[in-house]
């Protein structure tokens, strides 16, 4: 009897299952032939539902709700109630400001924070980290988290958020006791710079003065290895200069500029010191103290020459020229303006070159050196045309100087009562042909013939003997 091979039960079951599926598929295909279009669509939808896993209520809510809503729910579930409160208040505060600004404002078209998932992620990460550190009293970590948020939003251009977290970082720094006040100093610096960006210079000066006070005598440095004390001096000098520009009172302006120059010297930055000296000298000139102005301006010029800064050299020379001219030292004023013009020409600053040439032309024109004045005014006019600007000032000054240059020759021409000189004036009027400086012609000009004499009827007549002519006696 022949023995048959063992039956593969698993293979048989698989083949049986596939046969059943094919049969069911054939039955459903045959059934769908007699279905309406709507019934076919319902079958397809049911098939899709059968293929997808069942969703819970939580999964459905996550799918339906916004990213911000789900994030807030997770915060509350994990117990970060303060983080949720701060985030919610920030969003609502911005909404209120947007409504107050109105539809015509820039704020109205700003993208809402709720719609920016990347920023929400940063808020979630650092707010919860700060709250967790706060619970265990680690103020350094709280400060670090809030400082990182402020720097992040400063880089993204969200100044209102960076200002908020810089302020909260300052409040946190007051609770840190073991760093010698370094974080408090840095927080005051950050707040001062934030207020400067908002053009609140007086409040900015208060915080930067606190930063300077805390950092003096310390070895603290920033990422660029710049000492905090030097950075404080640089920031304060800039703020004091901005405060001086914002006021019109000369004495108040002078006080701010003195402070700016003082802290600039303390900061050991020669460039900033030279700029502060320049501003101070210019203000002394406005206060009619030219002697003191020249002292500060010379210091600024020397420092600028050591630094090879052509722009600062030009500004210092221009200011020095005005001060020397006020004192009557015209020769020194011309020297300064010549340096100003040369540095502007070398550095390619054509606008400053036009100003320097115009100033030189005015001085030479006042002194009666009309040819030099015409040369400088011509240079100013040509450079202004190269800039693509129609300079009416340079054109008018050039015309005045040219008129003054030919005034003496024109006057001399008018004093010579000759027809040839009158022809020169007529030619100049018609064609602007300037021949006033040419020598007078030496060719002899023949006199016109004398016209025949006309007899006077009142005179007595006599008859010439042997002739019929009658002539007057």
Distance between the termini: 193 Å
Q: Overall pLDDT, averaged?
A: 82
- How many whole angstroms does the radius of gyration measure? 46 Å
Shape, principal axes of CA atoms: elongated
Q: Helix and strand string, N-terminal first?
A: HHHHHHHHHHHHHHHHHHHHHEE
Q: Oligomerization state of this entry?
A: single chain
Tally of DSSP β-strands: 2
Q: Largest sheet, order of strands side by side? A: 1-2
**SSE class:** mainly alpha
By DSSP (H or I, 4+ residues per run), the number of helices equals 21
Strand content: under 5%
Question: What summary fits the major beta sheet?
Answer: 2 strands, antiparallel
Helix content: over 70%
Low-confidence runs: 9-14
Features:
473 residues, mainly alpha, 1% strand
Walk me through the structure.
- The protein is mostly helical and 473 residues long.
- The chain contains 21 helices and 2 strands.
- Strands 1-2 form a two-stranded antiparallel ribbon.
- Strand 1 and strand 2 form a beta hairpin.
- Helix 15 runs antiparallel to helix 16.
In short:
The chain is mostly helical and about 475 residues long. It has 21 helices and two strands.
Topology:
Elements: H1 9-33, H2 37-51, H3 57-64, H4 67-77, H5 81-101, H6 117-135, H7 139-156, H8 159-173, H9 182-197, H10 201-215, H11 228-246, H12 250-266, H13 270-286, H14 290-307, H15 310-326, H16 330-347, H17 350-367, H18 370-386, H19 392-405, H20 407-415, H21 419-431, E1 461-463, E2 470-472
Antiparallel strand pairs: 1-2
């Amino acid at each position: 009897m022949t023995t048959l091979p063992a039956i593969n039960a698993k293979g048989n079951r698989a083949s049986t299952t596939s046969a059943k599926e094919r049969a069911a598929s054939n039955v459903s295909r045959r059934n769908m032939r007699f279905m309406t279009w709507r019934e076919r669509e319902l079958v397809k939808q049911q098939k899709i539902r059968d293929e997808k896993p069942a969703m819970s209520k939580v999964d459905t809510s996550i799918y339906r709700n916004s990213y911000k809503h789900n994030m807030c729910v997770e915060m509350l579930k994990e117990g970060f109630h303060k983080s949720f409160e701060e985030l919610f208040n920030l969003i609502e505060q911005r909404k209120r400001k947007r409504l107050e600004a109105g539809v015509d404002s820039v704020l109205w078209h700003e993208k809402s924070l709720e719609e920016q998932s990347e920023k929400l992620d940063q808020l979630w990460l650092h707010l919860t980290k700060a709250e967790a550190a706060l619970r265990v009293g680690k103020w350094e970590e709280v400060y670090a988290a809030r400082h990182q948020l402020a720097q992040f939003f400063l880089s993204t251009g969200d100044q209102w958020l960076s200002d908020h977290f810089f302020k909260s970082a300052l409040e946190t720094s007051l609770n840190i006791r073991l760093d010698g006040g370094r974080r408090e100093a840095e927080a005051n610096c950050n707040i001062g710079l934030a207020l400067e960006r908002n053009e609140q210079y007086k409040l900015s000066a208060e915080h930067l003065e606190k930063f300077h006070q805390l950092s003096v005598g310390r070895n603290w440095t920033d990422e660029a290895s710049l000492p905090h004390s030097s950075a404080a001096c640089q920031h304060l000098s800039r703020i004091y200069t901005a405060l001086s520009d914002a006021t019109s009172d000369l004495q108040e302006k002078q006080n701010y500029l003195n402070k700016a120059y003082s802290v600039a010297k303390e900061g050991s930055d020669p460039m900033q010191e030279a700029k502060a000296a320049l501003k101070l000298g210019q203000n002394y000139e406005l206060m009619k103290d030219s002697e003191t102005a020249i002292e500060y301006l010379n210091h600024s010029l020397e420092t600028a020459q050591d630094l090879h800064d052509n722009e600062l050299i030009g500004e210092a020379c221009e200011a020095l020229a005005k001060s020397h001219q006020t004192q009557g030292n015209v020769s020194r004023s011309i020297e300064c303006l010549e340096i100003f013009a040369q540095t502007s020409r070398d550095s390619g600053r054509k606008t400053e070159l036009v100003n320097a040439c115009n100033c030189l032309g005015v001085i030479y024109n006042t002194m009666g050196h009309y040819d030099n004045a015409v040369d400088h005014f011509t240079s100013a006019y040509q450079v202004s045309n190269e800039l693509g600007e129609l300079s009416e000032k340079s054109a008018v000054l050039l015309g005045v100087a040219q008129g003054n240059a030919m005034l003496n020759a024109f006057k001399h021409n008018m004093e010579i009562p000759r027809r040839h000189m009158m022809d020169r004036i007529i030619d100049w009027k018609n064609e602007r042909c300037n021949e006033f400086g040419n020598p007078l012609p030496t060719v002899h000009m023949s006199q016109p013939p004398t016209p025949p004499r006309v007899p006077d009827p009142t005179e007595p007549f006599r008859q010439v003997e042997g002739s019929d002519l009658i002539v007057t006696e």
